Automatic annotation (TrEMBL):
PANTHER family: RWD DOMAIN-CONTAINING PROTEIN (PTHR12292). Gene3D superfamilies: Ubiquitin Conjugating Enzyme. Keywords: Coiled coil. Residues 13-127 form the RWD domain. The keyword Disulfide bond does not apply. It comes from the Eukaryota. SMART domains: RWD (SM00591). Pfam families: RWD (PF05773). Residues 187-216 are annotated as: Disordered. This is RWD domain-containing protein. It comes from Photinus pyralis (Common eastern firefly). Residues 133-162 form a coiled coil.
Length: 353
């Protein structure tokens, strides 16, 4: 009996507080009965968006919150109804209904009508937007939202492809830096070794890591390449010498058309698609600057880099970087590949070169 009296008192105290807060916006729907028989709460509150600190704003969204309580409320969850909603779609009202049900579960055991009303007002504030004047306007707005979503998806895809290209270029830059570091170490070592026999040239790390050309190689034919970055040279590119083990660089025989000098021509191909071409150009230019440092490095025991050229092939979405380097004409390429730490020297140039 004490528990029932407590529930009745709590409900009556709650209705008095709600009347003081909402005034005429609250309607008590309980029927008047004889003998002052007590009935559980059944109220409806007309709600508008919660007003911010900047004052009253135009009201576009409203709803009536109808709460029907049992005799065990607040120990039972009341029935929650949303009626006469304006300025919101059915899907939006369904979303509010779900949120109110969840809030009621969280507040079980406590009086909750005021909290549910506050939650509703906050929801109305977030969705207080002018409605569409016509079906055509609504269609245009929905189409605009879909276009924006598609644009964002394309931007994400471009960013992903740009990142892939950036990672590939960074990887190749690291390879170049490693080779530069190795050359510097060899240079310092040669300078400190006073008893070094002769002035034999050492092959570069990249040359020692070439895969031997076989019949499966598809690089055939000749091509004239004009290098102009460090003096103008026209190079007749010949057959393929070999490839780096990771397949990132292809080396060819090269012949200076004017002087007849032999060179090795390295070719890097960077493929890209739907990427920021300006970003790719910046990265390739950075690689070209790194190569310029190697071009300035000269020593009798090192293979010398001579020139570098970059070419953008827009039709196939790729960048070709050609590297012209000194050809070690007195070293058998097979000896380099089979015995990378031992160089075999000959008196004459092999006929195959």
């Amino acid at each position: 009996m004490l528990n029932e009296d407590s529930i009745e008192i709590r409900q009556e105290n709650e209705i008095e507080a709600l009347k003081a807060i909402f005034g005429d916006a609250l309607e008590d729907l309980r029927d008047k009965v004889a003998w002052n028989l007590w009935l559980p709460l059944n109220v409806k509150i007309k709600l508008t968006p919660q007003q911010g600190s900047s004052g009253v704003h135009e009201v576009y969204a409203t709803v009536e919150l109808h709460i029907i309580c049992s005799k065990q409320y607040p120990n039972d969850i009341p029935e929650i109804l949303l009626e006469n909603g304006k300025g919101m779609s059915k899907a939006t009202l369904d979303e509010l209904q779900i949120e109110l049900q969840q809030e009621a579960h969280n507040l079980l055991g406590e009086v909750m009508i005021f909290e549910l009303a506050q939650h509703t007002q906050s929801f109305l504030y977030r969705h207080n937007k002018p409605g569409f004047k016509s079906f055509y306007e609504e269609m245009l707005n929905r189409q605009k939202a879909e276009e924006q979503k598609l644009k964002q998806a394309k931007q994400l895809e471009r960013d992903r492809e740009r990142q892939v290209i950036f990672n590939e270029i960074e990887k190749r830059r690291e390879i170049l830096k490693s080779e530069f570091k190795l050359r510097r170490e060899r240079f310092d070592s040669d300078q400190s070794d006073e008893n070094y026999p002769g002035k034999n040239r050492k092959s570069s790390n990249s040359a020692s890591s070439l895969d031997h050309e076989d019949s499966r190689c598809e690089h055939h034919g000749t091509q004239v390449i004009e290098f102009s970055n460090n003096g103008i040279r026209e190079i007749q590119r010949g057959r393929c010498i070999g490839h780096l083990k990771e397949g990132q660089v292809t080396y060819y025989h090269g012949l200076d058309i004017e002087t007849g000098e032999l060179f090795a021509v390295g070719e890097w191909i960077i493929n890209y698609k739907n990427a920021d071409e300006l970003q790719v150009c910046r990265q390739v230019t950075s690689i070209e600057q790194e190569m310029n440092y190697l071009i300035k490095l000269k020593h009798s025991h090192l293979v010398h880099y001579v020139n570098v050229k970059q070419q953008h092939v827009k039709d196939s979405n790729r960048v070709i970087v050609n590297i012209l380097q000194e050809f070690v004409g007195c070293v058998l390429l097979s000896s380099i590949m089979n015995y990378p730490l031992k160089l075999k020297w000959c008196d004459t140039l092999p006929s195959e070169y």
